[in-house]
Amino acid sequence: MKAYILLLSLILTATTLFSAELVLTGTVISNNQKMMTARYMGYVKKINFEVGDMVEREDVLFELESAEFDIMESQADLALEQAKLMVDVYQTRLHIFKKQKRRLKRDRKKMSPANFKSDLLEMNDNIENISASIESAQVLVKQASEKTKQFATIAGYLKVQAPNNGILVDKRIRVGDMVAPGMLTMILVDMDHLEVEAEVAESDLKYVRRNKVVDIKIPSLGYKASGYIKAVVPSANPLAHTFKIRIHFEKTNDMVFPGMYAKVYLDLTNELKKR
């Protein structure tokens, strides 16, 4: 009888210890996955990285070429050069008219008052017209400069750069392909900001709260870490009646990759005591 009571006590103790921990299964994911797209239409001229390559921020992933862009850029550069040339021509003419005006005033005594007044009036009109033309040409220069700046920005779009460090996990373009704005070209995954995504049953959701400290284990590596529940996604799976949770942890092993199987351990001791 005593042996039976002892065995029953051990079973109850083991059951209590087992129930004091909730074990969830999850997957390692990246918290910073970038879907790379093009912002300008063109043909792929060069691809600098392949799937599996590590890239750094501002590395040029691929380059585009566009004959239409080259024509418009040349037209904008030509318009700017023409506007600057007009300003130079008008400024040269203004300098000549001002020089003639000074000479006219110097030779005033050699001319009749009527002729001097008439020539001076004509000279002032010419100077005024030339000054107005210079102002108009300077406006054209400003407009043409803005246009060339716009094309310089577009030129930057033709070289698609990595927004952050990471690993290239997918490439959907080849040299010669036509790329349209918004078209998915590459997928870049940040390997330094990883999380674990797990699903918790609706009946166990009462044990889950934000910032709760949990233990994480990646069986394939024997890797263990401590983390905390970053978020509970308020969207249930209608078939399984489960909710997704995100667990943040600090990566201390370079062999931890997105997609790995992980286990999450939640200590329920305090929750069970409250009950």
In short:
This protein is an alpha+beta fold.
Describe the structure.
With 275 residues, this protein is an alpha+beta fold. It folds into 3 domains: 20-31 and 191-274, Efflux pump adaptor protein, beta barrel domain (Elongation Factor Tu (Ef-tu), domain 3), CATH 2.40.30.170; 34-65 and 158-189, OB fold (Dihydrolipoamide Acetyltransferase, E2P) (Beta Barrel), CATH 2.40.50.100; 67-154. Helix content is 40%, strand content 31%. The protein contains 4 helices and 14 strands. The protein has helices at residues 2-19, 67-106, 113-157, 269-274, and strands spanning 21-30, 33-37, 42-47, 54-55, 60-65, 159-161, 166-171, 178-179, 184-189, 194-201, 213-218, 223-232, 242-249, 261-267. The strands form 3 sheets. A 6-stranded antiparallel barrel has the order 1-10-13-12-11-14. A 4-stranded antiparallel beta sheet has the order 2-9-7-4, with no helix packed on it. A 4-stranded antiparallel beta sheet has the order 6-5-3-8. Helix 2 (67-106) packs antiparallel against helix 3 (113-157). The longest helix has 45 residues, at 113-157. It is elongated. The model is unreliable at 1-18 (pLDDT under 50).
